[in-house]
Amino acid sequence: MGRLIALWVLGAGITATSPEGPSLHRYQFTQVAMAVPIRIILYAPNEATANRAAEAAFQRFEELDKVFSDYNPHSEARRLGNLSGQGRAVPVSCEMWEVLVRAQHLAAQTGGAFDVTVGPLVRLWRRARRQKELPPSWRLEQFRQLVGYRLLRLDGAAKTVELTRKGMRLDFGGIAKGYGIDQALKVLRRHGIASALVDAGGDIGLGSPPPGKPGWIIGVASLDPKGKPSIYLYLSGRAIATSGDSRQFVHIGGRRYSHLVDPRTGQALTDHSSVTVIAPDATTADALASAISVLGPEKGLALVERLPDTAAYVVRAPAGRIERYQSARWPDPPTLKPRERLPGRCGAAG
């Protein structure tokens, strides 16, 4: 789950005048979709415009939930899983096709550290966390045989998908939120909203900065889920996502197991870490944050250095000792004035 906080500058007015247009006012909306709280902050000339834009963006999230949800038995993702191993190439929606193409590309880039076919293993470890009991080795190996991005067949001409082994399941937990953020920002732009922030469970996509500001102030939280942000950044026109186990983990036999699973080995991660990625779009940031968590800081940052316009920051706590790593393109934090810091809490203020 993401651990990013969008901060608004204390004391700043909520109205700004553009030299090329009317005054813009700040509006904020919150709704639950894709099983996470969605927050939209935008600047619009009036309340009616803001309401229409936000409503359309939330509607887009709801549409995508029907495509990618692992919990909705009628979702497109669940239907594909139900048809696995039948030798059938299944026509899919434009959204499903677009995400699967991106996912397969990312899987190849990461050597399988990111893989949407990880669904059977995610379910197995979800049950293990509930029961506080490790899955038996035979079951782990059985499910591991159902995972591998090369087992997923995409026909570009027909726009069809085949899950080649019976029991395969897709899991979009590491990419669907990011895709939803990107789609919501597109919807807002179609409604004339350029200056906007979309936050889906802590993963954030950013449009143009607030009027008169150099960027949105984003706080990157520490490993402590109750702690204040350890880093503040000015960002706009980018996306930033965090993957980590600060909130979702279980102790079994004296060892900490994350909700994150390595698709290559089938094992839940045991490294207490947090990975934050800045990328041109939220789809990429979301997926890479998950992949780098699996790869570890050395291989993960080496991957990031090969990708354009991408940066990453990793915090680990092996044996309780804090270690920090960052890629060469990780931005220097701004020097914030005292009035720009939120005293005693993390959130948005206007």
Number of helices: 8
- How much of the sequence lies in strands comes to 25-35%
| Whole-number mean pLDDT | 88
SS-based class: alpha+beta
Helix content: 25-40%
Coarse morphology: globular
Q: Which sheet architecture does the biggest sheet show? A: 9 strands, antiparallel
Features:
T-fold; 350 residues; 30% helix; 2 domains; single chain; 26% strand; 17 strands; nine-stranded antiparallel β-sheet; three-stranded antiparallel β-sheet; alpha+beta
Task: Describe this protein's structure.
The protein is of the alpha+beta class and 350 residues long. It has two domains: 225 residues, Roll (T-fold); 88 residues, ApbE-like superfamily (T-fold), CATH 1.10.3980. The protein is 30% helix and 26% strand. The chain is built from eight helices and 17 strands. It has a nine-stranded antiparallel β-sheet. Strands 1-10-11 form a three-stranded antiparallel β-sheet, with no helix packed on it. α1 runs antiparallel to α6. The longest helix is centred in the N-terminal third of the chain and has 22 residues. The radius of gyration is 20 Å and the shape is globular.
What topology does this entry show?
Elements: E1 4-7, E2 15-17, E3 23-33, E4 36-44, H1 47-68, H2 76-82, E5 90-91, H3 94-109, H4 119-131, H5 137-144, E6 152-155, E7 160-163, H6 176-190, E8 196-200, E9 203-206, E10 216-221, E11 229-235, E12 239-244, E13 249-252, E14 255-258, E15 273-279, H7 282-295, H8 297-306, E16 311-316, E17 323-326
Antiparallel strand pairs: 1-10, 2-3, 3-4, 4-8, 5-7, 6-7, 8-9, 9-12, 10-11, 12-15, 13-14, 15-16, 16-17
